[in-house]
Amino acid sequence: MPAPSAEARRIRGEYFTPPPLVEAVLSRALPHLTPGPLTVVDPACGDGAFLSAAARALPRAGLHGLELDAAHASAARRAVPAGQILVGDALRGGWDALLRQLPAEGEELWLGNPPYNGTSPLLRDPVAYRALRERLGLDDALPRGTSLRDDYAFFLLLASERLSRRAGVLAWVTSATLLDAFLYAPLRERLLERLALREVVDLGADVFPGARVRTCITVWRSRGGPEPSPRFRAWTRGVGPLDSAEARPFRIHAPEWSFRPVPDEADRLEARWRAAGEPLDVLVPISCTGLKTRFDELLVDDDPERLVARVDAFLGASDLRAFTRAHGLHPGLLPKLEALRRTPGLPTRADPRAVRPFHRWAGARGLPPGGHAHCYLDRRLIPRGDHRLVGAFDPHAGHCKLVFNLRELPLAAALLEAPGCIPAHRHTRFAPLMIPERIRTEGPRAGRSGTPLGPLVPNLSPAGLAWAERVGGPREVFRRIARFIRSAEVQEVWAPAFGRTRVLPVPVRNS
Ligand SMILES: C[S@@+](CC[C@H](N)C(=O)[O-])C[C@H]1O[C@@H](n2cnc3c(N)ncnc32)[C@H](O)[C@@H]1O
Questions:
Q1: How far is the CA of 315 from the centre of ligand 1 (A)?
Q2: Ligand 1 pocket member 50 (CB < 6 A)
Q3: Distances from the Cα of 294 to the Cαs of 14, 19, 336, 349, 386, in angstroms?
Q4: Using CB atoms within 10 A as the burial measure, which of 153, 257, 279, 490 is most buried?
Q5: What is the pLDDT of residue 1?
Q6: Which of 240, 293, 252, 259 is nearest to 177 (CA)?
Q7: Cβ atoms of residues 479 and 391 within 8 Å
Q8: pTM (2 decimals)?
Q9: Could you tell me if the CB of 378 is within 6 A of ligand 1?
Q10: What residues are paired with 402 via a beta bridge?
């Protein structure tokens, strides 16, 4: 059988757990079991690494596995001859087949390293996704418009459902996004409702050869009996065995339900800044995500004249293949160009007034050298309307913007004192310094109303305006906000604790 491609491996999360890590997971789980009959289960068992370690450590336990890939399942059967290994898809019926073969008595030990792939293949299968959402009651658990994205999240919910009805322990390696990613706060909350978290080990980034993913171990116990505080340890590869990392008890708080302990100093700063100020998105009420042209090859260029000439030629071309050749565009772009030309209401000629500077902001790296280009900004050429122009409101037009990112580390911020657009870059946002009054009071949707938007006013809350009065104007406030975000206290203390999940409170009084 040919070896699977790196991409196929990534999608199926086929990264097998190195033996020392398997042993470490097992040894973290064992102290949480109570004596008696035991069934060990791995619902994504690969070649059987966890089940064979369990067979050695727990010779009397029953062993059950499920695996999507038939070849891996055969390898698991060879590695664990006493085990019962099913071939099946845990997220499309295989889970229930696995549960049906588990004995009714005793405790269960769920071990494993379920797939994590960034975006679950299930999200591209609406029928199966809907069925799983219904089964897991996700529509009630998740805020509207959010999804779980990653396979391991679905596996965890299924296993927690099981262990809310059966006594047992779960010890899994997963992506470390479980610990504190903003997206997974509802997942953490749901898991904490059902199970008692006992241990967390942050494994860092390089445990799996060939993958840079950050991973962790979490150990959970079904509810009932004493529930001591969970313990957290951060492990650094190469600095001694896992047990040598210091274990600290910690508490878990709403709203992020983070599984990382928060240093006291970060808690103190958060409380002080909150008391003396406002969250950044209240202080600066209007900010937008960056511009996504969806067609940079056509609509972005270092040279503004070449850009106008190219857009003009595109709009007038009778032969788009000849157009790609003449303008050095890859022939693979032809279908995209043809689709764009079919958009109703396109202009027939390019308008040089649509050209704007385009600042290739790169998050924490700021504006790299050569980061200045030009884009052609005409909403008719940006299908699906995914850009930041709402009716008559043009947030790109102003000459001063606060550029920053939210809920993503490292937190970055800069004051851009030049006209032009900021491209979409991960969680980058930009806030124009001056905005129409009605946009400030009613939000960007007021741009669609077709009625006058009022005079330009500073993009600041009343507390921000009072701050501006004291320090010499709104531009100075924007400068101070950028400096504050880049300060050592924010970068080194607040951001590691809260930067992925909270909006930064900015102290406006005494600043
Ligand atoms: C990260 S690997 C871990 C394998 C094994 N537990 C280990 O640690 O070595 C994940 C495994 O899950 C399997 N898998 C992926 N999606 C699955 C699904 N929906 N149902 C069952 N198994 C799945 C993959 O084929 C792969 O063997």
A1: 49
A2: yes
A3: 32, 45, 10, 20, 8
A4: 153
A5: 37
A6: 259
A7: no
A8: 0.73
A9: no
A10: 415, 431
